[in-house]
Design brief:
- The chain has 8 helices and 13 strands.
- It has about 325 residues and is of the alpha+beta class.
- It has 2 domains: about 130 residues, 2-Layer Sandwich (60s Ribosomal Protein L30, Chain: A); about 160 residues, Phosphoribosyl-aminoimidazole Synthetase, Chain A, domain 2, CATH 3.90.650.10.
- Strand 2 and strand 3 form a beta hairpin.
- Helix 2 runs parallel beside helix 3, helix 2 runs parallel beside helix 5 and helix 5 crosses helix 8.
- The structure holds magnesium ion (MG).
- Magnesium ion binds next to strand 8.
- The site of magnesium ion (MG) has 4 residues, from strand 8.
């Protein structure tokens, strides 16, 4: 029985043992599955969305999730915010020599459970083992394919003056949960990551607001980065109200203590939506009726292009620029 991962598990009979003892059963595939060189799909109606992401989060397990769940949610969400229905996932594992086999099993089970909830299928994968000290336990790369139904046109370049700007829930929990777990910060230990697959929330919102212009998940760089990216791609200015931005108390207090801006903190289960004014009320109700969108809020609107891409009216009546974080505030959060 495999107790820890060894370099010999990277090829030949060792790889075969690892695949059949741990990887295939824990990801829900039959041990006698025929392992082809590529997955083959029938062509679908609509457009294909295709995306990829690598996951290097530390620690591997954190309040609200782990690297396995994150690797499914991150890629599913990049498909979902393009209006795509997630279909198939590829999983590449880079394992460090000495990795505990029990930990590997937990991470793979977590991926399988999240795929089960999502309806996406792991259809292909790869496993490599590197020397001790050359990877922090494990890295995961996932690529995903989804199908965008005909008629949907969601793009970062579609925001128009008059549109309303919504966020799907309270901001900053993922980044603060990782920070607290990594640094052992007691004052932030109540933060639980928002890590979740958002495709059903997106579908519920699109059913109520079919002419939604832009959607983007607010991951690295937080909500501030997304507002700036959408404004730049669309050639507009986005104006938000500080009072309207939902920030949970555990994020407010941690950011206050550490001198961080909640708008800069990463999320793994929140998106920003830009919706035509006349569909914005229906969009907000649809979000709030869904388990993952209960804390959704309308935070602002789109204006003609001004001096800055994104501005915020502050709680005390001033106006400030919503800037993009200068670099990675907190590395290895996803
Ligand atoms: Mg994204």
């Amino acid at each position: 029985m495999i107790k820890t991962i060894q370099l010999s598990h990277g090829s030949g009979r060792g790889l075969d043992d690892l695949l059949h003892e741990i990887i295939l059963p824990e990801t829900g595939m039959a041990a006698d599955a025929v392992l082809e060189d590529a997955a083959v799909f029938p062509l679908q109606k609509g457009c294909i969305a295709f995306t990829t992401d690598s996951f290097v989060v530390q620690p591997l397990e954190f309040p609200g999730g782990d690297i396995g769940k994150l690797a499914v949610c991150g890629t599913v969400n990049d498909l979902a915010v393009m209006g795509a229905v997630p279909l198939a996932l590829s999983v590449a594992l880079i394992l460090e020599e000495g990795l505990d086999a029990g930990l590997l099993r937990r991470m793979l089970r977590s991926m399988r459970d999240e795929c089960g909830r999502t309806g996406i299928t792991i259809c292909c994968g790869d496993t490599k083992v590197v020397d001790k000290g050359k990877a922090d336990g494990m890295f995961i790369t996932t690529s995903g394919i989804g199908v965008v139904p005909a008629g949907r046109d969601i793009s970062a370049a579609n925001a128009r003056p008059g549109d309303r700007v919504l966020v799907s829930g309270p901001l900053g929990l993922h980044g603060i949960a990782i920070l607290a777990a990594r640094k052992g910060l007691n004052f932030a230990s109540l933060a639980v990551s928002d890590c979740a697959c958002l495709h059903t929330l997106v579908e519920a919102m699109l059913a109520a607001a079919p002419h939604t212009h832009c959607l983007r998940d607010a991951t690295r760089g937080g909500c501030a980065a997304v507002l700036n990216e959408l404004a730049a791609a669309s050639g507009v200015t986005i104006s938000i109200s500080q009072d309207a931005v939902p920030v949970p108390p555990e994020v407010t207090s941690a950011c206050g203590f550490l001198g961080l801006d909640p708008l800069h903190i990463a999320n793994e289960g929140r998106f920003v939506a830009v919706v035509p004014e006349k569909e914005s009320g229906a969009a907000l109700s649809a979000l709030r009726s869904h388990e993952l969108g209960k804390g959704a809020c309308m935070i602002g609107f789109v204006e003609k292009k001004g001096k800055f891409p994104a501005i915020m009216r502050t709680a005390i009546g001033g106006t400030r620029v919503v800037d993009v974080p200068p670099g990675e505030l907190l590395p290895r959060i996803c």
